[in-house]
Design brief:
This protein has 180 residues and is an alpha/beta fold. Helix content is 36%, strand content 15%. The chain has a six-stranded parallel β-sheet with strand order 5-4-3-6-7-8, with helices on both faces. A two-stranded parallel sheet has the order 1-2. The two termini are 30 Å apart.
Length: 180
Amino acid sequence: MVMSSAEPTTSDACLVAHGAESVPPERSLVVIYAGETARHLTAFATACGYRTTVVEPDPTRAEAARAWAPEVVSEFAAAGADSGTDVVATDHHRDDLGPQLRAALAGATRWIGVVGNPRHAGPHVAALAALGVGAAQIARVHRPIGLNIGSRTPAEIAVSTLAGLLADRAGQPGGFDFGA
């Protein structure tokens, strides 16, 4: 039995939980920068039905990412982002973070976020402002991202990030509050 990509009913969700095949809605994830968090995020997102692309401008890192990423491109414009695309920058220490995010903001992306510790100011804000990006556009970039599960390792950060994206797409708050 194959389930449709429409909103699942309770019985549809139950059938999927018991082995019925589900066809997820079309969704894309562009992961900016290769690394361990990106590797896990790409694997988990692909398993959840996302078309995933890694943007890695560094040729050496891009070559290494080709071992695990379905698609690797050197610039954001080549990622094929559209209004159904979520974008996650997995490294906030890279010198070209501002230009990468500016390119993502210029496109028709659904959601943009940067991994980072909420106790520290996001370096993307100053980087984007220095490039002439307006405050309203900068505010579209989420940081921190993901569900607050106390993640520390790259795999945990990836799980938290993807869970947050899935909850956001479904209009749900995430966590264990399922309502009445």
